[in-house]
Prior knowledge:
With 422 residues, the protein is mostly helical. The chain has 16 helices and no strands. It is 81% helix and 0% strand. Helix 3 (46-73) packs parallel to helix 5 (110-140) and helix 12 (299-319) runs antiparallel to helix 13.
Amino acid sequence: xxxxxxxxxxxxxxxxxxxxxxxxxxxxxxxxxxxxxxxxxxxxxxxxxxxxxxxxxxxxxxxxxxxxxxxxxxxxxxxxxxxxxxxxxxxxxxxxxxxxxxxxxxxxxxxxxxxxxxxxxxxxxxxxxxxxxxxxxxxxxxxxxxxxxxxxxxxxxxxxxxxxxxxxxxxxxxxxxxxxxxxxxxxxxxxxxxxxxxxxxxxxxxxxxxxxxxxxxxxxxxxxxxxxxxxxxxxxxxxxxxxxxxxxxxxxxxxxxxxxxxxxxxxxxxxxxxxxxxxxxxxxxxxxxxxxxxxxxxxxxxxxxxxxxxxxxxxxxxxxxxxxxxxxxxxxxxxxxxxxxxxxxxxxxxxxxxxxxxxxxxxxxxxxxxxxxxxxxxxxxxxxxxxxxxxxxxxxxxxxxxxxxxxxxxxxxxxxxxxxxx
Length: 422
């Protein structure tokens, strides 16, 4: 089976799509390490980082529904090339901001606003990129081989998420912060070149001119479907409550790396890179294990178990004073997240119509993201007035109580142990 999957790389068009996706993932991971370090240096505030993280989440909430329409109405190949070129330019602007005079980059200066504005533009472009990138795979691969294509694409993407933070951390340590942004820009351009060699079928536009109205009607119909499907509604509300607590700790990892672990031979960017890589490696193993654990345990309890394991991340960082324990905590979070996301599609399948499952999953992510964006900022404010580890502790308590309470929730107990196979 692995040989059959790898044979897809003989497909010239898929090979370049696959290569471009891996390069983009690597570039994004490197940029994330650098921009989080830069923004924390600029603001000196956990709340400032929380605003940045919250804006990233909200960009996904607002942009993804429309990005899917754009991916269906415009040439996906040209769209991906354009996005990567613009992202490369924006990464170079970040490079310039990070190398500006110190006076420009300290306190509540225009430097922080500039970096924030560039970052938001990158968040928007990233959320426009993924729907188009996912859709173009179906353009260049036969329908019966899409599962294999997605599998090997995800494998390369995971490798990029593991290696990217490490490369970003070492680039900052060995060279400078601007060098990490320069590397990210070069990789975006390389991804654009790879897509240039892809040849896709002629564009087939969707019928009808009222695309925005159609998107609105689909969203309303999806909300109605979620409310009328008990299993989907319960799973969505549980995850929403869980992410209120999870949001408290979002964005605090770079602050934790600076205040608790950095010093001596190890820098903040290195620590943060290690933590991101440990999470990515855990997600890879968690996703793989979901397939086998799902055969032995009830899917709904395994999904809830994944949420419980994710909460251990906050507990570990609340207690951690060493890098090794911190990495174990991030690795545990990754395993839990891998399990949760692998089973989320099954849990949200419910007994509803197949034609509405995409909207159901989109609403699941969107509904949960809104409170997380708000609490990401609140968590930063609390960390500034108390301590980062105190906020991690608060997040753990909230998430754990959500998981325990869900076990006794009547609606959750009523969900079949196994999702219906439709």
